Amino acid sequence: MWGETMNALEINREYIELIKKNSMRYLEDYKETEEKVKNSKAQYKGEPIPFLYHPMLFTEKDIDNFRRIGNMMISIANKVTNRYVEDREFRRKFGFPKLMEELILVDNGYDINVPIGRFDIFYNSYDDFKFCELNTDGSSAMNEDNTLAEILLETEAMKDFGKKYRFSLFELFDSWIRESISIYKKYNPNNHKPNVAIVDFEESGTIKEFEEFKKAYERNGYNCIIADPRDLTYRNGGLYFKDYKIDLVYRRIVTFELVEKADEIPDFIEAYKNRAMCTIGSLRSQVIHNKIIFKILHDEDTLKMFDEEERDFIKKHIPYTGLFKGDREVFEHILNNKDRYIMKPYDLNASRGVFAGRDCIAEEWKERLEKVWNRDYIYQEFVKPCKREFVVFNDGGFSVEEFGTIVGLFMYNERLAGLYTRIGKKSIISGVTDYYTLPNLLVR
């Protein structure tokens, strides 16, 4: 019964108590760990990932909850995406540019709408969580989680804690290779050794992570290159990088950037339209990636598509969302209820352009709202991040501090594959604010 009654918050509290008892010993170890992280592959835009000497701990019950949440969201995503493809009227709700719509309608050849995604949630329990966003384009940060987990498992504190508990991490590289190849087999069952290309614009890619995926493909027996789509040519019915014929594209280009730079990549787009290669994920995943999906899910006519359980799930766990345009009454309502809302652009990544009312004084809120009115923005009910206490070391010692947490559920081939956690003290927890990345460990 002990396994069933284990609670992640209680185990977290035990870890804090352990640190308190041996703080000077662990402080020295923390300094060494800091050096390891600096020299590791856990880099984002050339800088070491900010971390704590404290992992995010989850129990098997939490993991079961994440599976249920992920499965339900995939079911909803499939219904919406299939309707988008079949129903011209429904497509109008999204207002996507012509090229984007055209590319979404191209059959991807393997029948999965969201082959890879990271669904970010504010999580306390299965009954108490809310979605923050759905990332399906260029879902990233696998490298951060796995590298930090490996380093933290080697710390003195975790070795001591390991005398009572067993820990395991969620391997996110070889598992993706297996899933992407199994998707490729649906597209072409006859080619057992596809040539792989990880494709993104050079200035946008997280190169350290791409290198880890490249190594993983190679150690699993596949050729793999990292390529900028501008360097690819479409000839003789195939997509090429120089003389390297590409069979499988692992797409890390985010859709809005692909469309924005379409005139720079005519060969890639032509090859995509003609299904010259298997692209994982296809542009179909944009249907739920764009933040407008949160508004569309709450529309009465959309809700009719779902069964009762799915409708309840949407109403309870998808924050209420509306379009910030049209009737000036909408503007006035948002203006006068500052602390209840957060503003987000439809389709930018890394929290760019996001701002919360509770972070602004009234004048600044009004000024910022005026700037984005009628400008492809949504307003969304503000969700307070779930709180947890963590140990923070600094030169002089340590403190125990409370942070808001956000957990990303990595979905590979429609199944839960692993997790990504960021914590912070501000209303918005992201790579553009003060935050820490914590590795996720399953505790047994």
Tally of helical runs: 18
> Mean pLDDT, as a whole number?
93
Distance between the termini: 12 Å
Biggest sheet features: 6 strands, antiparallel
**By helix and strand content, what is the structural category?**
alpha+beta
User: Low-confidence parts, pLDDT < 50 over ≥5 residues?
Assistant: none
Percent helix among the residues?
Answer: 25-40%
Any idea what the CATH superfamily of the domain at 174-289 is called?
Glutathione synthase, substrate-binding domain superfamily, eukaryotic
CATH topology tier name of the domain at 174-289: Rossmann fold
C-alpha Rg (nearest Å): 22 Å
- Tell me the CATH architecture of the domain at 174-289: 3-Layer(aba) Sandwich
CATH class of the domain at 174-289: Alpha Beta
Shape summary: globular
Can I get a quick summary?
By secondary structure, the protein is of the alpha+beta class.
Note down, in words, how this protein is organized.
The chain has 444 residues and is of the alpha+beta class. Helix content is 40%, strand content 24%. Among the domains are: 174-289, Glutathione synthase, substrate-binding domain superfamily, eukaryotic (Rossmann fold), CATH 3.40.50.1760; 323-382, Dna Ligase, domain 1. It has helices spanning 2-5, 8-21, 23-38, 60-86, 88-92, 98-104, 142-153, 156-161, 174-187, 207-219, 255-260, 266-273, 286-289, 292-298, 300-303, 308-317, 328-336, 362-372, and strands at residues 43-44, 47-48, 56-58, 116-123, 129-135, 167-168, 196-199, 224-227, 233-235, 238-241, 244-246, 248-251, 278-280, 321-323, 341-345, 355-356, 377-381, 386-394, 397-412, 415-424, 435-438, 440-443. It is globular, with a radius of gyration of 22 Å.
